[in-house]
């Protein structure tokens, strides 16, 4: 990482490739105002790989479209790659690469010709464009497809061509709007390998929006979380997870008829033990993975069908230390635990802690519907909104 999001102002301004202040976009839809992006302040340092994460409609694309001059802001300013987006949009466009959602032309042009046309569009000489085209086709594994028509490419191949098109004029800053949406896990992995390799080779700054939590977690040095048009968190994924979420302990208990509040005797007693041990933090009762007849209500309580297996979920700091103590205490209280699991927090837990909502429910719907796959594994949502607890025993 070139610079942490908390680096000093002077270091930032020296190396800044994006600086935005108060960037705001409002749309008017049927006389109603839509606050798509509100007061976006942003400093991106040269060479950084920044991921913009947020549910559908959070304002990610609108932010990108303002920064790439495709959309004029309602108010605010931004300097991108050394040029003011309002005063010199043409210079911004010349300098950056932008790969929007579903850019790839479904045309009859051959892959290599499409690349050459793009080079010409950016004013490159034919020889420069040809050299760069061949270089990119090679590094993006597109060389064997050079003579194929764009229309005949697969989804993954088209996305790689999009990237090649965005890089033809060697931009030092590349904006990618959901580059992997709709791709199968294998193509997603390939695409990211290419993005990372290109960045390694050319030191390109990459600003990417994604619905995929695992991508932001794995590849970005910095994650901006956006919700309702505002950036609500900005840090490394590791730091966000440590400071905003906690380890998740999940305990299973023997069934038994749930009472009127949808819980069982074992669960009630387990919660009392947990509360005693964890400074009043009793955890949340959640349905077991894939259990039929049980559902988590909006209020976070569990409406379980008769005999539906239930679990207790606790969000704690230092779960590895808390779990053994908790199990000992439950055992000493005569409460039989049938299963125990400890999981590290994910960026979804971060979003949940920030907003009380799950990104998996909202944001990944489109993405997973498109790819029919969730490489992060599991889509189960829980109602855990509890702040990380500290073991007091
Ligand atoms: N051209 C437009 N006219 C009216 N409203 C718009 C327009 N473009 C975006 N919006 C609205 O602005 C808000 C932000 O949309 P935006 O596309 O930036 O979100 P997003 O985070 O990129 O969502 P997604 O992940 O679904 O692409 C949404 O409420 C959207 O409906």
TrEMBL record:
GO terms for molecular function: ATP binding. It comes from Herbiconiux aconitum. SMART domains: AAA. Residues 285-307, 361-393 are annotated as: Disordered. PROSITE patterns: ABC_TRANSPORTER_1, ABC_TRANSPORTER_2. It comes from the Bacteria. Residues 287-307, 375-393 have a biased composition (Low complexity). It holds the Pfam family ABC_tran. Residues 18-253 form the ABC transporter domain. The keyword Nucleotide-binding applies. This is ATP-binding cassette domain-containing protein. Keywords: ATP-binding, Nucleotide-binding.
């Amino acid at each position: 990482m070139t610079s942490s999001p908390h680096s000093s102002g002077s270091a930032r301004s020296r190396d800044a490739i994006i600086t935005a202040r108060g960037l705001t976009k409002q749309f008017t839809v049927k006389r109603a105002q839509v606050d798509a992006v509100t007061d976006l302040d942003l400093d991106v340092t040269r060479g950084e790989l920044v991921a913009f994460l947020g549910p559908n409609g959070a304002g990610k694309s609108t932010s990108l479209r303002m920064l790439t001059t495709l959309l004029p802001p309602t108010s605010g300013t931004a300097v991108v790659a050394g040029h003011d987006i309002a005063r010199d949009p043409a210079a911004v466009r010349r300098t950056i690469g932008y790969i929007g959602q579903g850019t790839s032309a479904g045309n009859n042009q051959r892959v290599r010709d499409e690349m050459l046309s793009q080079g010409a569009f950016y004013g490159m000489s034919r020889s420069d464009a040809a050299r760069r085209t061949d270089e990119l086709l090679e590094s993006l594994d597109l060389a064997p497809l050079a003579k194929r028509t764009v229309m005949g490419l697969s989804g993954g191949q088209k996305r790689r061509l999009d990237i090649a098109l965005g890089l033809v004029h060697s931009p030092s800053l590349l904006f990618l709007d959901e580059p992997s949406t709709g791709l199968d896990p294998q193509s997603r992995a390939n695409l990211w390998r290419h993005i990372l390799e290109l960045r390694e080779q050319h030191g390109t700054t990459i600003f990417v929006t994604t619905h995929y939590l695992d991508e932001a977690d794995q590849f970005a040095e910095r994650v901006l979380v956006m919700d309702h048009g505002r950036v609500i968190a900005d840090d490394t994924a590791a730091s966000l997870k440590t400071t905003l979420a906690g380890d998740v302990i999940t305990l299973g208990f023997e069934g038994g008829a749930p009472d009127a509040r949808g819980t069982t005797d074992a669960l009630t007693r387990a919660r009392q033990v947990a509360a005693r041990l964890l400074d009043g933090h009793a955890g949340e009762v959640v349905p077991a993975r894939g259990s039929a007849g049980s559902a988590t209500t909006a209020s976070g309580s569990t409406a379980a069908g008769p005999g539906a297996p239930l679990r207790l979920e606790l969000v704690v700091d230092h779960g590895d230390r808390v779990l053994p103590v908790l199990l000992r205490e439950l055992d000493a209280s005569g409460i039989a635990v049938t299963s125990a699991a400890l999981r590290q927090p994910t960026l979804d837990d971060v979003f949940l802690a920030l907003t009380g909502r799950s990104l998996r429910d909202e944001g990944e719907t489109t993405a997973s519907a498109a790819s029919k796959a969730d490489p992060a594994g599991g889509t189960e949502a829980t109602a855990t909104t509890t702040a990380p607890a500290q073991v007091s025993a």
